[in-house]
Amino acid sequence: VELNKRYDCVLQMGGSDQWGNIVNGIDLGHRMLGKQFYALTSPLLTTASGQKMGKSLGGAMWLNADMMSVYDFWQYWRNTEDADVERFMKLFTVLPLDEIARICAGDINEAKKRLATEVTAMVHSRAAAEEAAETARATFETGKLDLSLPTTEIPSAELATGLGVLNALVKAGLATSNSEARRHVTSGAVRVNDAVVSDDKLTLGPDAVLEEGVIKLSVGKKKHALIKPV
Q1: How far is the C-alpha of 39 from the C-alpha of 51, rounded, in Å?
Q2: Is residue 51 part of a domain?
Q3: Using CA atoms in the order 192, 195, 199, 202, what is the torsion angle rounded to 10 degrees?
Q4: Which of 156, 161, 154, 128 is nearest to 225 (CA)?
Q5: pLDDT tens column, 105-121
Q6: CA distance 181 to 183
Q7: Which CATH number is 180's domain given?
Q8: Any alpha helices (H) in the chain, and if so which ranges?
Q9: Is residue 53 part of a domain?
Q10: Which domain covers residue 163, as residue numbers?
Q11: Please, which residues have CB within 8 angstroms of residue 180's CB and are 6 or more apart in sequence?
């Protein structure tokens, strides 16, 4: 109703799960303004396991780099389920169908990397996509510290007084709350500079800073970030 008043909008688009809300909006607009409104919905994108790709299932994906780093965006697609790789390539890349078939007939992990790189290139540029791919390769395949991992800067004074590991995980974006961070520690998933953390009361100080000037934080095998005192 408000969009129609301001911009003469008569069409609302959304996912098929919003059909009821959209229809109610059409009815409200007709009652209030006496106009005809229209709806257009599209099927929800689901994974092979039937889960919806959306915020409610922790699958939120942001196009803005300030909301989701290029590396995390690349990793999002790299972690695609095996059964979804070919379908997602057809949906989200402009690769020729015969090339997609050839890629997916080979090693599935290489296909996932190609999917991640192609989608990231469309959103963030080819150079950014290749940098993210190289960061992942250096992190997972060579074990080297890559300084292009997502990095959070903190005041050196904060580290000097002691930064709790739970707080560090939240600051680095590896947990949404101290409670979630604590669960990660309890499950043995957290590492600081590749050393497993078992104490959720661990405090990080200047001695935790590597010679590269950062502290590496990890949750599981696929989520990594850096803390950089400045």
Answers
A1: 25
A2: no
A3: -40
A4: 154
A5: 999 999 999 999 999 99
A6: 5
A7: 3.10.290.10
A8: 2-7, 19-33, 70-78, 85-92, 97-104, 108-124, 126-137, 156-160, 165-171, 178-186
A9: no
A10: 151-229
A11: none
